[in-house]
Amino acid sequence: MATSYYWGTGRRKNAVARVHIAAGEGKFLVNGRETAEYFPRHNWLSGALSPLVVTGLEGKVDVFVNAQGGGLTGQSGAISLGLARALLKMNPDLRPVLKKAGLLTRDPRMVERKKFGQKGARAKFQFSKR
């Protein structure tokens, strides 16, 4: 019997996560590694798992993630969005729960670019009158 996969793509900052889910016993792999190993900090881990916790599906679906770009914070947010979108494809009845938790909204905030003649995006070099 072929397993049917549902997929979702999530983006946050410069990170992109391709999430594949299937009915299973609760495996969660990010780039072939366990989530606790991939995300050493609790807030990264809880952020990535939040769609499963909100819908009450932890331990009921297998999640396979391919995450790239950005840092671990961005990847955690991207996984959260991708997982929420995949769960929505699997069961459209979960939409109100995911929407209320704010998990279907793409975070538009990006790093502002550094400007020439300045230290950073907003920071200037120290000004000396004399």
Question: What's this entry about, in short?
Answer:
With 130 residues, the chain is an alpha+beta fold.
Question: How would you portray this structure in words?
Answer:
The chain has 130 residues and is α+β, with helices and mostly antiparallel strands. The chain has one domain (6-100): Ribosomal Protein S5, domain 2 (2-Layer Sandwich), CATH 3.30.230.10. 33% of the residues lie in helices and 22% in strands. Helix 2 (42-55) runs parallel beside helix 3 (72-90). It is elongated. GO terms for molecular function: RNA binding; structural constituent of ribosome. One of its GO terms (cellular component) is cytoplasm. InterPro entries: Ribosomal_Su5_D2-typ_SF, Ribosomal_uS9, Ribosomal_uS9_bac/plastid, Ribosomal_uS9_CS, Ribsml_uS5_D2-typ_fold_subgr. This is Small ribosomal subunit protein uS9.
